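pls design
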């Protein structure tokens, strides 16, 4: 297992280099002069050229990229063009908000989605199954910004029960978490239902029932573990996406998170900030995928035996 984990971590190195090169290329190909953005439109041409020289923007593209990678390996991701603050400080200030939002959104999707999906599968073609299918389709198709605005209108403006914006208390995360979890919850419900339906039709499930095992034992001990593997994959992928910045949700609820930071940085052509955000998100996504693969071994012992042989 340790050998497998080491291989996966080593494989992340070329992936991170490739991502950094692509983003660096895109940021340099897009219109706009960082020096002009920093100094403003009223700055003289000589001042702009002087700042470009100081920032190394007149160097060759590959030289600038190699210098960036060399500094990044030493933990120096540069200063933001927009605020002139170290990029690491900006990330450290914004990421906890996004992490809390993603955690609570995913937790809500899991604790509701998996049980509802199991019930829908066990009660196939019943009224409950039809209602669950209709609700999951509705949650899948509903736009996140519309749901967020409706929640603000009902619970913040009309009922005055919850705050509409900010991140000061736990109450500020309730409406954004519901908004963020809606689409993922629908995906978890549908995936749990389909995998459970496939598993409960297997021969070993019929054998367990024939031996007199109770229905709850059949469902939760024999069927659920095998049905969870695709669901865990979906959860891991969606959690990585949400950590990358729930842009729509953070924008609707005016939350100072990673998503709004990336959008603002792209608009301002803040290359150091964009590079740091994308690399950080890519690294998180890789680590989450690795964690999901490790979790597989605890859900299905057969997978762990394959890793041991490798």
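designed seq:
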């Amino acid at each position: 297992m340790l050998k497998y984990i080491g291989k996966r971590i080593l494989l992340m190195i070329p992936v991170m280099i490739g991502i950094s090169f692509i983003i660096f290329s895109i940021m340099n190909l897009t219109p706009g002069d960082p020096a002009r953005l920093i100094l403003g439109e009223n700055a003289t041409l000589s001042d702009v050229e002087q700042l470009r020289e100081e920032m190394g923007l007149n160097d060759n593209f590959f030289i600038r990229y190699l210098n960036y990678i060399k500094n990044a390996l030493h933990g120096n991701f540069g200063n933001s063009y927009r605020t002139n603050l170290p990029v690491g400080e900006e990330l450290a200030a914004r990421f906890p908000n996004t992490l809390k939002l993603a955690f609570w959104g995913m937790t809500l999707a899991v604790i509701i989605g998996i049980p509802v999906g199991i019930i829908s599968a066990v009660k196939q073609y019943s009224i409950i199954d039809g209602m669950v299918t209709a609700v999951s389709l509705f949650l899948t198709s509903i736009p996140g910004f519309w749901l967020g605005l409706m929640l603000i209108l009902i619970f913040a403006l009309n009922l005055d029960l919850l705050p509409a914006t900010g991140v000061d208390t736990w109450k500020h995360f309730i409406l954004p978490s519901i908004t963020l979890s809606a689409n993922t919850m629908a995906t978890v419900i549908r995936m749990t239902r389909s995998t459970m339906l496939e598993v409960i039709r297997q021969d070993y499930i019929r054998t367990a029932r024939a031996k007199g095992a109770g229905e709850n034992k059949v469902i939760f001990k024999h069927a659920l573990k095998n049905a969870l593997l695709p669901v865990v994959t979906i959860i891991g992928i969606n959690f990585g996406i949400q950590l990358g910045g729930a842009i729509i949700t953070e924008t609707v609820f005016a939350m100072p998170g990673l998503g709004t930071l990336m959008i603002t940085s792209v608009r301002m052509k803040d290359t150091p900030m964009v590079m740091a955000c994308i690399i950080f998100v890519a690294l998180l996504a890789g680590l989450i995928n690795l964690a999901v693969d490790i979790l597989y071994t605890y859900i299905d012992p057969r997978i762990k035996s394959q890793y041991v042989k490798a």
